[in-house]
Amino acid sequence: MPINRNDLLELISKQDKVANCAKDIAGIILGRKMRFPDSIQDALSEYVDASIKAVMEASTIVQELDELIETGFGGREVEWIEKLIVRLDELETQSDKHQVAIRSQLHAIENELPPVDVMFMYKIFELIGNLADRAQKVGDQIHSIVAR
Questions:
Q1: Using one digit for the tens of pLDDT, what is the confidence trace for 73-85?
Q2: 121 CB-near residues (< 8 Å, 6+ apart)
Q3: 43 lies in which domain range?
Q4: CATH of the domain at 79
């Protein structure tokens, strides 16, 4: 196999952590029957979209891995993967910016909300950011595989 077994297992583990993070987000929101204030709905949607884009980009990179193997880890495919990884890093940075913005918006209204709800909202915001972070780690792992 052209990929080190440990590298492949690490890649699978990182992908699994993306899925587990998404499950954690859904579990908290559904389990607590959370409702987010109308005033932060748009910011929340943008934040979630940014994190989902990062996850989708990581998925695209993983799907390109078979092409990379077919080309023997050379040529244009390596350049393409590297461009996708740079794009993934940019998307994760965008997610971070959205997280800062939505936390600021929640901070401005948190005194009007039940404190326990606010704490869980901050937790959800953290997990949404973790989703993009974990997607970036998938890209980093593939970058490591390509570099070898």
A1: 777 888 889 999 9
A2: 34, 36, 106, 113
A3: 5-147
A4: 1.20.58.220
